[in-house]
Design a protein that fits this description.
By secondary structure, the protein is mostly beta strands. It has helices spanning 341-345, 368-373, and strands spanning 5-8, 27-32, 40-45, 54-60, 65-66, 74-77, 92-97, 100-107, 110-111, 115-118, 122-129, 132-136, 139-143, 147-151, 156-161, 165-172, 200-201, 212-221, 224-232, 237-242, 247-250, 269-273, 276-281, 284-285, 305-312, 325-329, 350-351, 354-360, 365-367, 374-375. The chain has a domain at 252-381: Jelly Rolls (Sandwich), CATH 2.60.120.10. It contains two helices and 30 strands. The strands form five sheets. It has a nine-stranded antiparallel beta sheet. The longest helix has 6 residues, at 368-373. The chain starts with a strand and ends in a 12-residue tail after the last strand.
């Protein structure tokens, strides 16, 4: 996030002596993106960060994609996603390309038995159901339904779930950030932005661990998972400051932008990243022109694939779509309301729909797991005579 934050204890000047009560040095670590030319934080550890007792290769972590076949509208039914052992191990990749991997995860109550670090991608976990705590070297973050949990490269974390939880997940080898048009030259969110810094939750409780033993960290990098065994707890940070850390925005804190006539999809944009955007459809008033049509117009995403994860409410422009379904409208053909939905929207004044949309600027591929969840969808436009 583009604002400075700090927790715990650290020296007045960077790269100077910072000693423990016993006279030994705390170990400084600089975590920086883009060769230390972008966001960074400086952390102070009880133990040497490079210290690894044992390593092992746990195998590949790259999705297996299948041939897309003829271009067509597609939909996936994810409501019955299998319950995994934990959020990370239970994650199922469904769609992706070189810029992004989209998936779902369903996990039981409890705390992960290992720590996880994605060193090749940012991760965003959107909480559809459940609540819990994200533990990291930057401190603790409590999360609940509707939260976008944004975890940068290199963060070592664990989740503890208060109850069975379900997530829609995004992995991308680029930063997730507010769109530039929402910010001034200094990074501050502007008055017209649909959310502001007050809506963003950052770590507020730093939990420093100094215990020794054996601690497992699973690291995702080079499209594989490495297992590291440490002889110290990886959350041994006594203090840190900087701009790189996990943070949360709840979808209900996104203030919808509406107008007299139907507004285009970019008004729903929440985050920006390399070659894709994330948008939030939230409860809102419809258009107020006397002849307005609340349902969206038919449109062709000429240079982007559109993915929508349907969370709550009745999505006015869709037939055959249920809670937790995912639709994919690839570029190469138009899409829009199914027969009868445009007419049915006339006179409506508001919607209670809630959904997360991802538009990618390169084609998405489906995984083998996605095919197992696919449901009939393209045929829903064939009702009636087509007028």
């Amino acid at each position: 996030m583009p604002f400075y934050h700090k927790l715990g204890t650290f020296p007045h000047k960077r790269h100077t002596q910072f000693k423990k009560p016993n006279g030994k040095l705390y170990r400084e670590e600089v975590m920086g993106l883009e060769g230390f030319s972008s966001l960074q934080s400086i952390l102070y550890h009880h133990f040497l960060p490079p210290r690894i007792k044992q390593t092992a290769d746990c195998g590949p972590a790259k999705p297996e994609y299948v041939d897309f076949g003829p271009i067509r509208h597609r939909a996936l039914k994810t409501a019955q996603t299998p319950l995994g052992p934990d959020p990370v191990a239970g994650r199922i990749p469904l769609l992706g390309n070189n810029d992004i991997i989209l998936g779902v995860s369903r996990a039981p109550k409890g705390r992960m038995t290992y720590f996880y670090r994605n060193s090749q991608a940012y991760e965003t976990w959107w909480v559809h159901e459940g609540s819990g705590t994200l533990y990291s070297q930057f401190g603790n973050l409590k999360f609940h339904k509707g939260d976008y949990i944004v975890i940068p490269f290199g963060v070592t974390w664990q989740m503890e779930l208060d109850a069975e939880s379900k997530f829609f997940t995004i992995e991308n080898p680029s930063q997730i950030e507010p769109p530039k048009r929402y910010r001034n030259p200094y990074g501050q969110l502007l008055e017209h932005a649909p959310y502001c810094e007050r809506d963003i939750r950052v770590p507020e409780e730093l939990e420093t661990h100094t215990e020794r033993g054996e601690f497992e960290v699973r690291v995702k990098v080079r499209d594989r998972i490495s297992q590291h065994i440490l002889d110290y707890h990886p959350h041994d940070v006594i203090g840190w400051d900087g701009y790189l850390y996990p943070w949360i925005l709840n979808i209900e804190d996104f203030e919808p932008i509406t107008g007299r006539i139907h507004q285009p999809p970019p008004v729903h944009q929440t985050f920006d990243a390399h070659n894709f955007v994330v948008c939030s459809f939230v409860p809102r008033l419809f258009d107020y022109h006397p002849e307005g049509i609340p349902a969206p117009y038919n449109h062709s995403n000429i240079q982007s694939d559109e993915v929508i994860y349907y969370a709550e409410g009745n999505f006015m422009s869709r037939k055959g779509i249920e809670r937790s379904d995912i639709s994919l409208h690839p570029f190469g053909l138009p899409h829009g309301p199914q027969p009868g939905m445009t007419e049915a929207s006339i006179g409506k004044t508001e919607t209670q729909e809630l959904a997360v949309m991802v538009d990618t600027f390169h084609p998405l591929h489906l995984t083998k797991q996605a095919l197992e969840m696919e449901k009939p969808y393209m045929e829903t436009w064939l009702e009636g005579d087509g007028e």
